[in-house]
Design brief:
Blueprint (H helix, E strand, L loop, with lengths): L52 E5 L9 E5 L11 H13 L9 E4 L5 H9 L6 E5 L4 H10 L6 E5 L17 E5 L8 H11 L5 E7 L3 H13 E5 L21 E8 L5
Parallel strand pairs: 3-4, 3-6, 4-5, 6-7
Antiparallel strand pairs: 1-2, 7-9, 8-9
Length: about 270
Amino acid sequence: MADVDHPFLLPKNIKSPSNSMMELNAESPEKDDENVFGITEDLVQSPQHKKADTTLINFDGLLTIPLKLQEDLAEGCGGQLWPAGMVLARYMLRYHRDKLQGQTILELGAGGGLVGLAVALGCNIDQPLYITDQRNMLALMQQNVALNGLQERVIPKILGWGTPPLTPTLPIRPTILLAADCVYFQPAFPLLQQTLLSLIGPNTRCYFCYKKRRKADLKFMKTARKMFDVRVVDDDEKGKGGLLAGEGYGRAGIFLYEFRAKGENA
């Protein structure tokens, strides 16, 4: 058994799911009618079902060269563009374009890599940027990195929530942590919270964006406020259409926060 003091292991009061629930084995895919999470369309509804295709995104001109994003739901709902990812990407491009030099950046639950790839394309970074997700999302992340010619700047890695990283090269305490649309399945909340607690160090700023879909999502934030110093990032672009095109993101049920370590976690 791994060392119990490893920062990515679950605390004793959080039950670890068998066979690492958040880390799917790509070599042993589940049958279509054997959803390992029990997630149904009622729990996590896609914005729309569409065939695998490449989407071009310039975030209303914030990117001079459009981001190419391959969307593919074959390996899970993370393979599609989600609204909180758009909000977080816009926020980083508008307000952090020239503030990321020397920063170690990691995206958690990246799906196809929308936020991290947008930052790599449009912000001034001088360190490798890591995009992470479960094993079943790795091929899609790699594909999108290659589509945008970012192999020298963006590194896709596997990171299952509540589990140690599979590679020692993954930064344990990044200075910038990005997470969008990671709040979607209540049984995974303790795993996500433990991973956030492990990654957020004394010098980490975590930009956390999600779309509220159920009352349980508010319980996640209630717990997060006990674990971290949490600041609401206001949408001060309402007169310009907001961070979500067409409306202020708060009216769309999307919330953006900055998490920082509390004194006892630092």
